[in-house]
Amino acid sequence: MRTEEAMHYLASHGQQKTGNDTIFSWLARYQSAAAAGARAVNGTIGALLEDSGDLAINQVVDQALREAPAAEFSAYAPLKGLPNFLDLAISLALGDSRGRLEVMGLGTIATATPGGSGALYLAASNFTERGEAVLLRDRHWGPYSGFITGCGLNIATYPLLPEIEDPSTPFFDRPSFERELEHLASTQTTVTTWLNDPAHNPTGLSMPAESRHALLTSFVESAVRNEHVGHTLLLDAAYHLYADEPHGWAETIAEALDDGLPWPENLLICFAISLSKSHTIYGMRTGALVCLHPDESSLTRLKDVMGVTGRQTWSAAPRVAQYVLSELHSHEEGGVAWSHERDRLAELLNVRRTRFLQACDENHVQVNPSHDGFFAWYECDDPEGVANACADQHVYLVPLSGGVRIGLCAIPTEFIERVAEALAKAQG
């Protein structure tokens, strides 16, 4: 008898959950090679490592955590999050544009979540009608599929990059985006798109201002044309504080509103905030979903919806990092000290990316445009074959749909050229 047939206690939707996480399986291959004595290169994981191979830790955050009162470690947080942390999450999402947007009449709420993944779950659970599709770029973080399908939703996609570049909207296939948007708006009661920008995982791509403005305009125009269809633009800002324009989306929204772009009542914009990367506290699972809308009563209702969803899923998000980070950023000295450490880590990534792109150019390896954050991307038809060919040279990368992810965040600077050389040999 097949195992699945014998497991009558497992519901049909549970039976569909199969396989191991690709990233962790390739990390295991690296670890096995390193343990056997190979001079192996680890480009698999999505955590920032020092050139020594140790986990990169913002020492200012680490020290602040160690000084936190015992009760802040042990007590529950409020179900929706500590108020000071929620205020911090809004500021991290919007930066210097926060005051400008508030003066324009935009209201904001935030809900504390277990990391950025919790924020994505809140969105998947509440913004798209069951059975309808969420619009993604065709290259995206793999776990998106799990959040979306696990909530009874489907996936629609448009190309990450246009086949023919339009200089007015670099790195954005506007016609394809608008076609998919129109199709969803005409066949669904909700339209939701998730956009991981800036510092896209898995490519490191960041949209410039003109492309951000074009996407926002297209989305707003769709909401205006389809006034009875809810429109939600979710900006996954997991890596935004390592980007050259960390608050570019808030600036674009403010500039567009200044220029007269309307905000229809059926439009919601959200930011999924993760403190894992920006504050190097991956295991403390601290994040937030920040929502923008001009109607305060709608935001009040939304706050309740998010709080109830969290209560029914994870109860309350962990407290200690909420407390520590809101205290740290409450005074200029703490914020400056944190930013100095963050800048050091960002420079480590910048050096690695610059050297990698230069080495790829020298070795005639065509990689995707890559600007910010933790990753770079090699587009190919046979990701498994390329990754295996690299592994034969003890360079371990992650094969995903449509290409291979290169974790610049994990690769010591001295080994960067080896990765480009391995890719050159892998492509023949």
Biggest sheet, in brief? 7 strands, mixed
The total tally of domains equals 2
Q: State the low-pLDDT regions, or none.
A: none
CATH architecture label name of the largest domain: 3-Layer(aba) Sandwich
Percent of residues in helical segments? 40-55%
N-to-C series of helices and strands: HHHEHHHHEHEHEHEHEHEHEHHHEHEEEH
Global Rg: 22 Å
Shape: globular
Output the number of helix runs. 18
CATH class of the largest domain: Alpha Beta
Distance from first to last alpha carbon = 45 Å
Task: Write structural notes for this entry.
- It is a single chain.
- The chain is of the alpha/beta class and 428 residues long.
- The protein has 2 domains: 20-57 and 336-426, Aspartate Aminotransferase, domain 1 (Alpha-Beta Complex); 77-330, Type I PLP-dependent aspartate aminotransferase-like (Major domain) (Aspartate Aminotransferase, domain 2), CATH 3.40.640.10.
- It contains 18 helices and 12 strands.
- It has a 7-stranded mixed beta sheet, with helices on both faces. The chain has a 3-stranded antiparallel beta sheet with strand order 9-12-11.
- α12 (248-258) links the parallel β6 (230-236) and β7 (267-274).
- α7 (97-103) runs parallel beside α12, α10 packs parallel to α11 (209-225) and α11 (209-225) packs across α12 (248-258).
- It is globular.
- The termini are far apart.
- The model has no long low-confidence stretch (mean pLDDT 95).
